[in-house]
Amino acid sequence: MSWMQFLIELIDKLVWPVVVIFCIYRLHRPLAALIPLAKKLKFKEFEVEFGQELKAASQNAARAFPELKQDKKSILIAATENLPNSAVLEAWETVDEAAEVLIKSRISDVKLDLNTRYKHIENILVQGDIIDTKKGKLFSELRQLRNKVAHAKGFEVGKSESIQYVELCFKLTDYLKAVTAENSSLTQ
Predict the structure, then answer these.
(1) 21, 47, 66: which is the final residue of a domain?
(2) Which of 150, 165, 174, 186 is the most buried (most CB within 10 A)?
(3) pLDDT tens-digit profile of 131-181?
């Protein structure tokens, strides 16, 4: 074997490991930034599922340290930074849930139509004198804004508007919960 043939054989054997090491060296920062975003990582027999393990750890931590539990309002206000439209939709869900609980505490056999659910809830609340007209108007305005966010193509809410919307939703939710509590104390 000549020295030229030896050199070619050596390069042939070392080129792939060198390329892999070079790629890892050049891409280690971007790859390290992507790993926390991964839901699942698998290499041969080694497999890690981050989302499920993190969720389980968070639930265990919440039980062990109740002071770590954040309220939904704080979480939604923090979410307005990057996902203002999602924060609006999530905030509306709190109003919807509180309104449904209130209606069901007053009317036991109510059926809410899925297609016009929010309008139906609004009509029951206002026409049934469950809430006053000003609160009914706020419910209507919040519902209409929610519908724009949910259904209008390309409609983007700004951060400050999203925060204001979340605040209003939680004020209305607190009011609806207070009326529900007042109603349940009267029936007992």
Answers:
(1) 66
(2) 165
(3) 888 888 888 899 888 888 888 888 888 888 989 999 999 999 999 898 888
